[in-house]
Design a protein that fits this description.
CATH superfamily of the largest domain: Chorismate lyase-like
Structural class: alpha+beta
Pfam families: GntR, UTRA
Protein name: Histidine utilization repressor
Order of helices and strands: HHHHEEEHEHEEHEHEEE
Distance between the termini: 48 Å
Helix content: 25-40%
Domain HTH gntR-type: 19-87
Largest sheet: 6 strands, antiparallel
Number of domains: 2
CATH architecture of the largest domain: 3-Layer(aba) Sandwich
CATH topology of the largest domain: Chorismate lyase
Shape: elongated
Keywords: DNA-binding, Transcription, Transcription regulation
Radius of gyration: 24 Å
Length: 246
């Protein structure tokens, strides 16, 4: 039976309402940035220009730009205008994932450069891994790139008793995280994040200007009730952010 020309199933369908004007402006700004029309560092149209373009109130435009600034998409300079921020690459904290998987999940290309791969008896390494003073550890250092832009320097100590073939791996085609997860899955982790100024070597590898800080993740993981790895991950603070939820 029909009621007013509408079937019961049709009447139950939700009515789609247009997005609020401020949300449409935010989407427009993001599209201009993502397509490269407004590259990083460029100034975007003024609030007055956007008011005329969209036919909305100044308050609506102000809200859209304020929220994009809070999301670190834009930054505002008093008397100069509103500028596009550099892209900030992200990493999740809740789940330990390969950086290659993180990058590829965004549709980008991961590459890496191995700087160091060695056996070491350094006291710092042995202490970090809870090994005896007469023991040894493996040490690797590498740079990870997203679309040919360096976003992480990875300095890692590894327990050789859990990962005896660590030095045999081709870490320009396989990340240490992928190899270690396959050999001995991790049980737990602890980490600390700090903002630190890099030394000249780290700064050069990350192509950072002098004076810019790094976001540094110090992480220790366990497997088979032993410390598996102790790794320090350096990221350019202006181009990287951590994210997570629980």
């Amino acid at each position: 039976m029909l009621y007013c020309g509408v079937t019961p199933s049709e009447s139950a369908m939700p009515v789609q309402r247009p997005a609020p004007a401020y949300a449409r402006i935010k989407d427009y700004v993001r599209r201009q940035i993502e397509t490269g029309t407004w590259p990083a560092g460029s100034v975007i149209p003024s609030e007055h220009d956007l008011v005329r373009q969209f036919g909305v109130s100044r308050m609506t435009v102000h809200r859209a730009l304020r929220e994009l600034t809070a999301d670190h998409v834009l930054h505002r300079v008093q008397g100069a205008g509103t500028f596009v921020n550099p892209k900030r690459y992200q990493s999740t904290l809740i789940e330990i994932r390969s950086i290659a998987a993180e990058i590829e999940s965004r549709g980008d290309i991961h590459t890496s450069q191995v700087l160091l791969l060695e056996r070491t008896t350094d006291v710092t390494a042995l202490t970090a891994l809870g090994l005896a003073a007469t023991d040894y550890a493996y040490h690797s250092c590498m740079v990870h790139f997203e679309n040919n832009e360096p976003i992480q320097v990875e300095d890692r100590y590894v327990n050789p008793h859990l990962y005896p073939r660590y030095l045999e791996q081709d870490f320009e085609h396989l990340t240490p995280s992928d190899y270690m997860t396959r050999e001995a899955p991790l049980q737990r982790a602890e980490y600390v994040i700090t903002a630190r100024l890099p030394d000249a070597v780290i700064r050069q590898h990350l192509r950072m200007p002098a004076g810019d800080p790094c976001l540094v993740l110090q992480r220790r993981t366990w497997a088979h009730e032993q410390i598996a790895t102790d790794v320090t991950l350096w990221h350019p603070g202006a181009r990287f952010q951590f994210s997570g939820s629980f």
